[in-house]
Write a structure and sequence with these properties.
Elements: H1 2-20, E1 23-28, E2 35-39, E3 42-46, E4 58-61, E5 67-69, E6 91-96, E7 101-106, E8 122-127, E9 132-138, E10 150-156, E11 159-164, E12 169-174, E13 180-183, E14 199-200, E15 203-204, E16 217-222, E17 228-233, E18 238-242, H2 243-247, H3 253-259, E19 261-264, E20 269-274, E21 280-284, E22 289-293, E23 299-304, E24 315-316, E25 321-326, E26 346-352
Antiparallel strand pairs: 1-26, 2-3, 3-4, 4-5, 6-7, 7-8, 8-9, 10-11, 11-12, 12-13, 14-15, 16-17, 17-18, 18-19, 20-21, 21-22, 22-23, 24-25, 25-26
Length: 358
């Protein structure tokens, strides 16, 4: 009994020490950010319109930590009736490509679960040197389908890959031609299993219909060597497939689906980031923790802290710090019978990871 008490005390002390390592990078009393990108001294934040967030769809933090519209006010000034092709309808993710561009992924629908508006679903490439939009990749109606929720983006060579959390599937984008196509449509690997729920700190997330929320293809990463794409529904499990097969439009649907293999049976995650060594950092929603899956499959807890309640889309910067936005997605009005349970302010934390810098 005494030994158990001592062990519990040591664990509590360890967690407390870990919690102290979290640093507050920014906070907001009005904007719910679920995405972050840090480029040198500039920090970009974004969040979906349907959360009720008040502020720019995509912002760069000023010296006071307040988000200013990026790349300009026009792109952040969407309203019903606006030109959907030249404004952010609903940003779900932002991502640095490592080649001088910031990408904003627009689901194209201002409502959660709604159909993408004409010309609304797109990937917007912004040149970080000029702070201007370099290119817009629109997803046509046969790619961003009714019910689609274009979710996030990753890159390898001349191709980009995106997940569709609404209509199960992946999107492959040719960065040279701008052509896009769907793959693994309604495949088991991209479809949320009915027997796995999204448990956040002990509570099951439910949609507006009262049923457990199902989020299809959502988290994913490209292996450091670029040979594999790892992906899965938000609730898991994860699969893997060779990128060369995704890149080849001549590979038929049946062949591609047969090539998909199991990769990792991870719990429901808010977001992930993979370092150049192949370590996958993921935010475990049930335990409010950041965990690391090593290339050999071993999983360790980096930090557990109640303040990390639904950390979304983390990113690792050049100083080997991981950025942790905490949008508390499950506390939004949409998932609580119209009553927001968000605990303000919304926080953005950083945590220094062990090991060498990038």
């Amino acid at each position: 009994m005494k030994r158990t008490w001592i062990a519990a005390l040591m664990m509590s002390a360890a967690l407390a020490a870990g919690a102290a390592e979290l640093k507050v990078a920014a906070q907001s009393d009005s904007m719910i950010w679920n995405a972050v990108a840090a480029d040198g001294s500039r920090v970009f934040v974004a969040g979906p319109r349907w959360t009720g967030s008040r502020g720019p769809a995509l912002g760069v933090l000023d010296k006071a930590g307040k988000p200013q519209p990026y790349p300009d006010a026009g792109w952040n000034d969407w309203a019903p009736g606006s030109d959907n092709a030249i404004a952010f309808v609903n940003i779900n993710a932002i991502h640095l490509d490592g080649k001088g561009s910031l990408w904003a992924i627009d689901s194209g629908s201002p409502d959660f679960g709604g159909d993408p508006l004409p010309h609304g679903a797109k990937a917007v490439q912004i040149d970080l040197r000029t702070n201007r939009v370099k290119r817009v990749y629109e997803f046509p109606a046969d790619v961003a389908l009714p019910g689609s929720y274009v979710d996030d983006i990753r890159f390898h060579g001349r191709h980009a890959y995106l997940t569709d959390a609404g209509k199960p599937g992946l999107i492959v984008l040719d960065l040279d031609t701008g052509a896009s196509r769907r793959v693994l449509d309604n495949a088991p690997s991209t479809t949320a299993p009915k027997d796995r729920v999204i448990d956040v700190a002990g509570s099951i997330v439910r949609g507006g219909d009262g049923q457990p929320l199902r989020v299809n293809a959502d988290p994913f990463e490209v292996s450091p060597d670029g040979k594999h794409l790892y992906f899965g529904p938000l609730s898991g499990p994860w699969s893997q497939v060779e990128t060369r097969l995704l890149d080849d439009p001549k590979v038929d649907a049946a062949t591609l689906e047969r090539a998909v293999q199991p990769w990792a049976d991870l719990p429901p995650v808010g977001g992930t980031a993979m370092d150049r060594h192949g370590n996958l950092y993921f935010t475990d929603l049930k335990t409010s923790s950041l965990k690391k899956r090593a290339p050999d499959g071993g999983v360790t807890t980096i930090i557990q802290d109640d303040r990390l309640h639904w950390v979304d889309a983390p990113m690792i910067d050049s100083a080997n710090r991981i950025w942790l936005p905490v949008p508390q997605m499950d506390r939004g009005a949409l998932f609580n019978k119209g009553v927001s349970k968000v605990q303000w302010p919304i926080m953005l934390f950083t945590l220094q990871l062990e090991g060498e810098k990038k």
